[in-house]
Amino acid sequence: MNLFLWSLSFGTVLSAATCDNSSGQTACGTTCCSSNQYCESAGQCQAISSIATTPTSTVENPAGFTTSININVQRKVLRFVCSVKFPGAILIAITPHLFSFLRFIPNAELWDLFVGPVETAATRTTVSATPVATSELIPPPPLYYPSFLTGAQVPLVAKNESWKFPSGFWWGVASAAYQVEGAAADEGRGPSVWDVFTHNAASKSTLFGDTGDVADNQYYLYKQDIARIAALGWDLPLFLQNSYGGWLSPDVVDDYVAYAKIIFSRYGKKVSRWFTMNEPLTFCDEYPYASNYFTAVTIPEQQQPYYCGHHVLLAHAKAYRLFKSMGLNGTVSFKNNGGYKVPLTGSSEDAVAVQRAWDFNEGWWANPVFINGDYPTHLKSYLDTIGLTFNETEKALINGTADFFAHDAYSASYYMAPDSGTDACTSNSSHPLYPGCYNTTNTGYNGWLIGPASDPLSEWLHDAVDWLPAFLKYMQDTWPSKGGIAITEFGFAEPFEYQKTLLADIRTDVRRTLYYKQYMEAVLMAISEGINVIGCIAWSLMDNLEWAQGYHVKFGMQYVNFTTGERSYKASFFEYVNAFKLYAEDPVVPVYVK
User: In which order are the strands placed within the sheet that holds 412-416?
Assistant: First the structure.
């Protein structure tokens, strides 16, 4: 089985060494660093005295008390920068390539100050994999038979002998750390911004008050989850956000690269494909953050997503260059996201709206990386006015920093000009659609939806897979990559699944099953037409915390009983696997992306 590491975005990494934390030891690869050392790279401890320190502030501390400064760039790897004993105060020692934060707040205090009590799971030790029962591997009958008066049924599926997935095509399923892991405050983990979002009602980040405290408890059940896959053949540390504004500050770039260096050092020889960023459009659009929970910044709210994006691109590029400089074998990209953009009408204004939408969404990230190191035309016109520009050195740094084009492609929508016209919008910074100055809808001018709707809580998502071949062709023509195109997320929220109570009813996910069947056929059609699609990853492995929609929106190909943690395959999982049994040249070996 190939191993993928999805998004270096300050995630969770398991440590190989078991160390005595009570005595100040921390894990560093297969060894343990003592209380007067820090982990420079896997297996290499450095004395704290060798660090060029920047004493910036002190906090009062009981005499003789020893404390580990937990910076939580990642769980279990960077457990501290330093651990020091002073008679009356803690002096913050900062490595040059890490933080310039001014004061020390212990993890427990961060949880108390910003999050409050967290829920814990019944299982809090790693569970070994157990064989999947044969009875669980019995596929359902096809869910898309027509009925006949005679009672006979003929399946609406037949193998197209001209289609095939090429040799080396990789496929699998995906999940994301905060959405599935749980173990929120276990083993030294500090809070992330999403812990704050989900625990504080004023942030209004989840519709039903759901949190990721326990989620699917995959932190302890991951071995079982991998076994279940084999049987079938965006979060930011709160410390960084409150230190300097997170992705709004250029300081985050070098912090991210330092984090990437540790991950590459530890796993560079084990992981074959890497994604530096997961959907930066999504997490940058989360800005501005609520000032009552996070450090206030002076950047105007309207501009904050673009400052975030600027620093994301630089961080990605530096991480990519670092990977290549380390001589590692593997490919690196980032995960773009967005749907196909269909003009509502044939008007020239709607055509402009479509191009603006490409520029302010996919092109925001893809143009700098795949074309010329700089922003696309319409976006650049706006960013120039707020001083977000790349110099020639930065353009050269960014250009060409992806080995293949990776995109999360779920659906399609119609796009059109603002009611007042594009010019009226672009000349008025107070316009509600400024600076993008385009509008979108899922209903065509003829009154018909672009495709069947998913769950009402995911109103953005419709089954519009008929547009997928055109979408893939647009990607290949607009942002050409010698490495080809990987579809790194796609999936469907079964309508009203959260209201179902019978397990058999939940597992019979008809709409999602049909979506996967048609989606894979659309991919095969695109390949037959010359589009270089190299792989696809379905979202998601199992039901999980779907961010603002909590646990009420279901994308999972496995049902999860959130009381017992038990997983059950849905019909859609079998349909997805069946596509590769029908059309794959290579043996059916799924991968797991996280």
Answer: 340-343, 412-416, 439-441
Using CB atoms within 10 A of its CB, is residue 252 exposed (0-12), middle (13-18) or buried (19+)? buried
Residue that has been written with the tokens 């004395």 in this structure: 47
Average pLDDT over residues 323-335: 97
At a CB cut-off of 8 Å and minimum separation 6, what does 399 contact?
368, 369, 371, 372, 373
- CA 37 vs CA 41, 46, 49, 92: distances in Å: 12, 5, 8, 14
Average pLDDT, stretch 422-434? 97
Residue 384 is part of which domain span?
341-388+412-449
As a whole number of angstroms, the distance between CA 517 and CA 509 comes to: 12
How far from 400 is each of 128, 183, 370, 405, 482, CA to CA, in Å?
A: 42, 38, 6, 11, 11
The answer to whether residue 354 sits within a structural domain is yes
Q: Are 322 and 264 in contact (CB under 8 A)?
A: yes
- Region 250-267 average pLDDT: 95
- Report d(CA 137, CA 147) in Å as an integer: 26
* Axis-axis angle for helices 510-528, 468-478 (nearest 10): 50
| Three-state secondary structure call for residue 150 | coil
Among the listed residues 417, 279, 285, the one whose alpha carbon sits nearest the alpha carbon of residue 356:
417
Structural domain includes residue 442? yes
Residue 319 has pLDDT above 50, yes or no: yes
DSSP string for 490-531 = -----TTGGG---HHHHH--HHHHHHHHHHHHHHHHHHHTT-
> How many angstroms separate the CA atoms of 540 and 508, rounded?
16
For 56, residues 6+ apart whose C-beta sits below 8 A from its C-beta are 92, 94, 100, 101, 102, 103
427 located within any domain? yes
Q: Measured between alpha carbons, how far is 564 from 18 in angstroms, rounded to an integer?
A: 28
Three-class secondary structure of residue 348 per DSSP: helix
Helix (H) or strand (E) holding 67: strand 66-68
One-letter amino acid at 426 equals T
User: To the nearest whole number, what is the mean pLDDT of the chain?
Assistant: 80
In angstroms, the CA 528 to CA 24 distance is 59
Contact 196, 111 (CB under 8 A): no
Total domains present in the chain? 1
Query: For the chain, how far is it from start to end, CA to CA, in angstroms?
Result: 14
Using the 8-state DSSP alphabet, how is residue 243 labeled? H
Question: Which region among 71-85, 130-144, 223-237, 413-427 has the lowest average model confidence (pLDDT)?
Answer: 71-85
CB 324 within 8 A of CB 331: no
User: How crowded is residue 55: how many other Cβ atoms within 10 Å of its Cβ?
Assistant: 9
Judge contact between 235 and 10, C-beta under 8 A: yes
Residue 583 placed within a domain: no
Please say whether the beta carbons of 277 and 334 come within 8 A: yes
Q: pTM for the full model?
A: 0.77
